[in-house]
Amino acid sequence: MKKREKLAIIRQHYPNAMTTIDTVNRLIDFVEDELDLEPTQIMMADSICSDDVNSIQYPARTHEFLGPFKMGGLDGFPFTGLTGMGAFASHVPDNGAVFVYYGPHIGISKDGTVGQIHRFGQAKVSSCCGAAKGALNRLLNDAIVAGEVRDIDYQMNTIEQILLNHKQRIITAPVPLYEATEVIYEAIDDRIGELVAKTSYNCQYVILMGAILINSDTDMGSFSATRRFDVINLTTKARTDLLDAHFPCYQPVPA
Fold first, then answer.
1. Which InterPro entries match (predicted)?
2. Reported pTM
């Protein structure tokens, strides 16, 4: 299957999706051409789901950056919190930049089914994101208790509480799992914003890329639908929204 055919499937749901490889390539071009920095001056953190498929489909070029520091737990929520962000910030080169890639993930199979992928070596499809789908099932069955967050399943319970706060929005959506992923993205984006505001960085720039990470079948690869691309100049304190300039929406590509 050609790349344009793969993108046509994914862009039915996420019009600005790119392959994760192309996303990283575009980011590196931006860092080199517009910030005049080398990837080795960039300390990267990611707040994405701990699902093994994200490690399997992680683009090789990200290893040109320093890191990554792992901030995320189930479905990408930054469970390492303020301590994690502070630790990560202390590792950045003095004349470099911090780059944080964050967001939930969702599966879209090659037949266009939302919420499932065909994983390597398995005959049957499986859920993606399994945590989001599990939390959604509990939401649909009225099995989530408001405020119940147990130590033994803290991360899953936190995801459940996030969904419970937006129950009507999710259960009335045409594709509830898609909408649940949107809700989780918004919660992650808000929390990353809080963490950045409360953290000191000894470098030139903070680069924030919020996205929906889209996994697919083994022979399809992964994709990224960027929702935020902000650069904070720590000298001038200016924050610039560069999303439309670098990650615009596309019309679905004909198959």
1. LCIB/C_CA
2. 0.94
